């Protein structure tokens, strides 16, 4: 199931390219652009200095439920064997949770705790590369890419935890 989403994204990327080619010589500039989707699942582990922690496992459906906005695009320009390539992926994910719990002793309320949590994750992935076409014939094509990739991930957790303390009657 974890491989279904990447395969779907790959199929969508191949189905959506829009090509605009200049007329004339074969060494004229050619351009390709694609808007695509990427549907990841997220898993990992958390750890704390005291040795505690837990695992995180978000399905593709969980990620889509938390999605506020996303934009994925790729662009390529080629002149003969040489070219330029860039890919930009942006995703804004977030969710809020609220809950409360009352504590009692002997059936009498002692304390209550209320928590409001708000998590926001913004991710930019930008790839830029120069390309050189190694092979292009009826059987296959192959490009060499040399470039850089930037990953910027900003996480913000806002929380508000309040408590109310009741009293126990003296005994």
For the sheet with most strands, the description reads: 6 strands, antiparallel
Helix content: 10-25%
Rough outline: rod-shaped
What is the straight-line distance between the termini?
60 Å
The total of beta strands comes to: 8
Gyration radius, rounded: 26 Å
Low-pLDDT windows of residues:
1-25
Enumerate the strands of the largest sheet in spatial order, edge to edge or round the barrel. 1-2-5-6-7-8
Tell me the fraction of residues in β-strands, as a range: over 45%
Structural class: mainly beta
Give the H and E element order. HEEEEHEEEE
Mean pLDDT equals 81
Count, helices = 2
Summarize the structure.
The protein is mainly β. The protein has 2 helices and 8 strands. Mean pLDDT is 81; it is low at 1-25.
Write up this protein:
It is rod-shaped, with a radius of gyration of 26 Å. It has helices spanning 4-15, 60-66; strands at residues 18-21, 29-35, 42-45, 55-58, 67-79, 82-105, 108-136, 141-165. It is built from two helices and eight strands.
Give a quick set of tags describing it:
171 residues; mainly beta; six-stranded antiparallel sheet; two-stranded antiparallel ribbon; 11% helix; 64% strand; disordered N terminus
Topology:
Layout: H1 4-15, E1 18-21, E2 29-35, E3 42-45, E4 55-58, H2 60-66, E5 67-79, E6 82-105, E7 108-136, E8 141-165
Antiparallel strand pairs: 1-2, 2-5, 3-4, 5-6, 6-7, 7-8
């Amino acid at each position: 199931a974890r491989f279904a989403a990447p395969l779907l994204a790959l199929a969508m990327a191949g189905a959506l390219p829009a090509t605009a080619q200049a007329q004339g010589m074969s060494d004229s500039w050619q351009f390709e652009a694609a808007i695509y989707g990427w549907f990841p699942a997220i898993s990992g582990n958390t750890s704390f200095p005291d040795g505690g922690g837990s695992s995180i496992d978000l399905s593709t459906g969980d990620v889509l439920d938390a999605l506020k906005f996303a934009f994925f695009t790729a662009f390529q320009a080629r002149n003969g064997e040489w070219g330029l390539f860039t890919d930009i992926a942006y995703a804004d994910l977030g969710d809020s949770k609220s809950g409360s719990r009352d504590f009692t002793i002997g059936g009498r309320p002692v304390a209550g705790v209320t928590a409001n949590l708000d998590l926001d994750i913004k991710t930019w992935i930008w790839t830029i590369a120069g390309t050189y076409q190694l092979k292009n014939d009826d059987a296959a094509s192959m490009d060499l890419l040399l470039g850089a990739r930037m990953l910027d991930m900003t996480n913000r957790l806002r929380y508000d935890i309040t408590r109310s303390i009741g009293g126990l009657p003296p005994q």
